[in-house]
């Protein structure tokens, strides 16, 4: 399952990079008795706002996402179509902020 977490993280980051928006992306890795998680922190290059995404191979991440401590939980092995709408929304927010400035 660890390979699935890494592969899903790579696909997710590649999807963010393909938007054309200058996001600052950092990744933190975590291992516990439950399994592995990668945290992807996404910031707009010119704004203080950030999003926290958890990619994991265990159900604890889903519980935290539902509690609001993370903006998105992606199960290991998920495909880009599962996060495309979410990425589209943060790109729209970025576009609105640029238009308002």
Overview in brief:
The protein is of the alpha+beta class and 101 residues long. The protein has helices at residues 2-17, 60-67, 84-100, and strands at 23-31, 36-44, 50-56, 72-75.
Q: Secondary-structure map with pairings?
A:
Layout lengths: L1 H16 L5 E9 L4 E9 L5 E7 L3 H8 L4 E4 L8 H17 L1
Parallel strand pairs: 3-4
Antiparallel strand pairs: 1-2, 2-3
Protein model, in words:
- The protein has a 4-stranded mixed sheet, with helices on both faces.
- The chain is built from 3 helices and 4 strands, in the order αβββαβα.
- 18% of the residues are buried.
- The protein is globular and about 45 Å long.
- The chain starts with a helix and ends with a helix.
- The protein has 101 residues and is an alpha+beta fold.
Radius of gyration: 14 Å
* Beta strand count: 4
Q: Mind summarizing the main beta sheet?
A: 4 strands, mixed
Shape: globular
How much helix is in the residues?
A: 40-55%
State which percent range the strand residues make up. 25-35%
Determine the mean pLDDT. Answer: 87
Output the number of helix runs.
3
Distance between the termini: 44 Å
Oligomer: single chain
Spell out the helices and strands N to C: HEEEHEH
Poorly predicted sequence stretches spanning 5 or more consecutive residues: none
Strand order of the largest sheet: 1-2-3-4
The structure class reads alpha+beta
């Amino acid at each position: 399952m660890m390979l699935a977490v890494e592969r899903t993280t790579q696909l997710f980051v590649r999807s963010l990079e393909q938007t054309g928006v200058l996001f600052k992306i950092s990744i933190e890795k975590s291992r516990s008795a439950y399994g592995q998680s990668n945290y992807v922190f996404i910031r707009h290059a010119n704004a203080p706002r950030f999003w926290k995404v958890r990619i994991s191979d265990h159900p604890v991440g889903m519980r935290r996402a539902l509690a609001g401590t993370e903006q998105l939980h992606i199960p290991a092995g998920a495909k880009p179509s599962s996060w495309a709408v979410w990425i589209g929304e943060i790109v729209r927010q970025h576009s609105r902020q640029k238009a308002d400035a």
